[in-house]
Automatic annotation (TrEMBL):
The family this protein is said to belong to: Belongs to the adenylate kinase family.
Phylogenetic lineage: Eukaryota, Metazoa, Chordata, Craniata, Vertebrata
The name this protein goes by in its record: Nucleoside-diphosphate kinase
Span of the signal peptide: none
InterPro entries hit by this protein: Adenylat/UMP-CMP_kin (IPR000850), Adenylat_kinase_CS (IPR033690), P-loop_NTPase (IPR027417)
GO BP annotations listed: nucleobase-containing compound metabolic process
Keywords tagged on the record: Kinase, Nucleotide-binding, Transferase
Organism domain of life: Eukaryota
């Protein structure tokens, strides 16, 4: 259960899941769809950071440095990421629940998140080969021109993910809250054909809302 601090500095509990996966695995698309399916709010870590850089990188030294870090394929400072997440939770405390897209990206983020916000109820991990991740990122670079999709950054991001994800998955596996979705074949990778969202949502439903309960904790009609 996630714990956020409201505007009156009071703790509150929230239902939440994280969707983790390599760069280019389709986290953003599936997080949005999952959130819509369950009536949750989707919070994209990458989108938050990119928006802040767009608005502040030219006038704020902090965000100028973060923009350079991310453009080099490295992770934003963890304290910045956590603080931005906290602010998003505070702004939307009336939400039924949350799907946090692209988080955590290294084990330290997971620890800090639990200390300051809480433990997710579920972590969905999209597993896709490194080769396929690179192919998808290169395609996105040609089509969208994101600054962190340059050749050097792509290699750096994939390698960083490869190094960090085993500890993250192991940590949440030991807590019994990981749902792993394997995307081995190119034809099954998100974006080339419809992703089995119904299957994923069914798995999430079973973990988050057992015995027919819904997001509000109410039992569904028989």
């Amino acid at each position: 259960m996630l714990r956020a601090i409201d505007s009156n500095c009071k703790p509150t509990s929230l239902t939440g899941s994280c969707l983790a996966g390599g760069p280019g695995s389709g986290k953003g698309t599936q997080s949005t769809k999952m959130a819509s399916h369950f009536g949750f709010v989707c919070i994209s870590v990458g989108e938050i950071l990119r928006n802040q850089m767009i608005h502040h990188a030219t006038s704020d030294r902090k965000w100028e440095l973060i923009a350079k870090i991310i453009a080099n394929g490295e992770l934003a400072p963890p304290e910045t990421t956590i603080e931005e997440l906290k602010q998003q939770f505070i702004k939307q405390l009336d939400a039924e629940g949350f799907v946090v897209d692209g988080f955590p990206r290294e084990i330290g983020q997971a620890f800090t998140f639990e200390e300051q916000i809480g433990s997710p109820d579920l972590v969905v991990f999209l597993a896709c080969s490194n080769q396929r991740l690179r192919q998808r990122l290169e395609k996105r670079a040609r089509e969208q021109g994101r600054p962190d999709d340059n050749a050097h950054a792509i290699n750096r991001r994939v390698e960083t993910f490869k190094q960090n994800i085993p500890l993250i998955v192991k940590y949440y596996q030991e807590k019994g809250i990981v749902v792993r979705v394997r995307l081995h074949q190119a034809s099954n990778c998100i974006g080339t054909r419809p992703f089995p969202l119904e299957l994923v949502c069914s798995m999430v439903q079973e973990q988050l809302f057992p015995q027919g309960t819904d997001a509000a904790g109410e039992r569904g009609a028989n």
